[in-house]
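Forwarding these from the shared drive since the link keeps breaking.
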Amino acid sequence: MEQATLVRRSAEDQNALQPREHRENVVPLQSRSGDTALNGAYTPVELSHEDLELLAEIATGVTTEVAARRLELSARTLRRRIRNICDMLGVNTPIEAVVWAARRQLI
């Protein structure tokens, strides 16, 4: 429980340091390169309106098939787009992608 509180506070502190208009369109992604990661370098990742809409739909807890129907996509296209978003953000699961977007107040 204490670790979750620290993570939440860290995310809030990070959001407070950035102007709101910057946070709405760009999600900082820590570089995977060991050298730049140690220096604290971040690569901005832009998520489209459609990507954010998809993440918001996933956040409601519906199945992939239901989300695809609501967004007028095939289930296969939806899964591919989710995988692409996860790859862009450097996360492993759609839930992690939703958490990234939620912490940055994008959804």
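-- next protein --
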Amino acid sequence: MSGGKQTVRRLKRMQILLAVDGGVSDGAIAAAVQTSGSTIYRTKKRFVEMSLEAALSEEPRPGARRKLSGKEEAQLVALACSGPPEGCVRWTLKLLANALAEVVEHESVSCETIRRRLDENDLKPWQKKMWFIAKIDGEYIARMEDLLDLYAEPHDPKRPVVCFDESPIQLIGEVRVPITPKPGKRYRYDCEYKRNGTANLFVMIDANRSWRKVKVTDRRTSQDFAVCMRELVDVDYPDVDKIRVVMDNLSTHTASAIYQTFPAAEARRILQRLEFHYTPKHASWLNMAEIEIGVMRR
């Protein structure tokens, strides 16, 4: 019963247990469910020795340890999203394998490993529809490794990691009142809408626990950013020692913005509780808040 989707295999295990409970022989079960005798034996054994859920669930499958660590996989993504080597029109699996082997602690990396990791990240660098990283230099790698090390640290409640980003949003309204659905009918609304201006969303998520916050503002100026940071310190995390904030390189995301908004003593108090970590240029995918915004939009 190795083939098929997991839900189908789970259904077959249910059928096996129901048939066993009804007194059906193993041979008849194998013919009816179209499975092997060994699968029937293992399902019954796990049910008797463990539990119903254990009998229905997948057993741990043996396999080789992943060759690339999380940091090495991030380096592969960065390579695949950068320009190809000089003299080449596009990246190939062999080119990526050779380039990655030069920056990771492996003697060689197979093309199949590259293919699988790219497939998991939905990357196809040989196609023209892709996003592009202008240049992978020392600053890029330093910032990338700083963030990856930050994400990999054990959770410290006194030094939380908060990912911060912002996104404009268009406000639209209904021209006609929608028709509420009745039993068997769909919700109906007019395709015409009216524009009600725009707003800004400040999005904050804790990288190590299920906490997120969305603050709506009219603008996204330095003052708005500074007020957001003060709320993060005084309201959201009042009892921690240091808040490590991950954000991009927008011109308002600076310590000077806080000094421009508040008196010097207040600004210094706020900044003593903050530690800024910046994503590399053109690498917003390293900020978890950017991913959260993408999920909200979809």
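Strands lie at 161-174, 193-206, 212-217, 243-247, 274-278. Residues 6-21 form the longest helix (16 residues).

- D.
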